[in-house]
Amino acid sequence: NKIPEKLLSIFRDKKILEVLNKYTEYLQSKSLSENTIRNYLYDLTEYFDYCKLINLSPLKSLDQDKLRPMLSYILNKGIKQSSVVRKVSAIKSFSSYLERFGYIEKNYTDLLSIPKNTKSLPKVMGNTEIENLIKTINRYPKDTTRDEALVELIYSTGLRVSEVTGLTIGNIDFERSEIRIIGKGNKERVVIIGKKAEEKIRKYLAKSRKGILINSNPLFLNKLGTALSPRSVQRLIKKYLIMSGMDSNYSTHTIRHSFATHMMDGGADLKVIQQLLGHSSPETTKV
């Protein structure tokens, strides 16, 4: 089975050629058709192009923080969704081969997943955008201590909006910096509160919730003194996002997804992120 010239021309390296030949033999040993093998090799073209762009040998492991940029690179080529899914499969297959036969120690491409019915990656806010959102809320003329606490809490914990609005004061353990969550399917989990979020929650309770705090009381209240609804939170955050001049497609879920992506980019283990998000399957957590 001949290796496509388009793939070979990217690096012109003897070692890479040798590995590609061995990989081809490996695919042949799996009783795959010549056409399937040719497609597997051809579908590595954009991946090799990206490796060349970042001065990385395709025989080296692609770091976690390069997964999204690599996917964006492929998607920006205007390739059909079905083809992108195929190309990701080819990248994962090649990387698994490299790991299995000792060319690389770590294979992060297992974290790759393409949503089947979307033409782009899920939106992710950058760290500066999160900061700008908080600043926008802070500049709002009315008292916004509750709203600042809300956004910081969602970003630092990755909680679902329904989980945030279902929180009671008793769910928070300030001494341990923990929150006890009752999530989907009535499953309980404990998440760590970030320092900023904890400070803003304390400030909100001190400023807006004067008097005795009862554990069973909802954490976030509306003007009528009852629990904020998920829809109210979504509307609130949408209002601040528009005021910030950010992408109009951003939402509360974008903040939650940003939490997961920033943790993954920082090297956090997928299983840890899965537990924090309350996902029962790692597939739901993937890039």
How does this model look, in words?
It is a single chain. With 287 residues, the chain is mainly α. The two termini are 33 Å apart. It folds into 2 domains: 5-111, DNA polymerase, domain 1 (Orthogonal Bundle), CATH 1.10.150; 127-285, hpI Integrase, Chain A. α8 (145-157) crosses α12 (252-265). It has helices spanning 5-8, 14-29, 34-42, 45-53, 67-75, 81-100, 127-139, 145-157, 161-165, 195-208, 230-244, 252-265, 270-277, 282-285, and strands spanning 172-173, 178-182, 188-192. The longest helix has 20 residues, at 81-100. The chain is elongated. Mean pLDDT is 81; it is low at 279-287.
Give the end-to-end Cα distance, rounded to a whole number of Å.
33 Å
Q: What gross morphology would you assign?
A: elongated
Find the CATH topology of the largest domain: hpI Integrase, Chain A
Name the poorly predicted regions. Answer: 279-287
What is the number of helical segments per DSSP (H or I, 4+ residues)?
Answer: 14
CATH superfamily of the largest domain: Intergrase catalytic core
InterPro entries: CB (IPR044068), DNA_brk_join_enz (IPR011010), Integrase-like_cat_sf (IPR013762), Integrase_catalytic (IPR002104), Integrase_recombinase_N (IPR010998), Integrase_SAM-like_N (IPR004107), Tyrosine_recombinase_XerCD (IPR050090)
GO molecular function: DNA binding
Keywords: Cell cycle, Cell division, Chromosome partition, Cytoplasm, DNA integration, DNA recombination, DNA-binding
GO biological process, one term: chromosome segregation
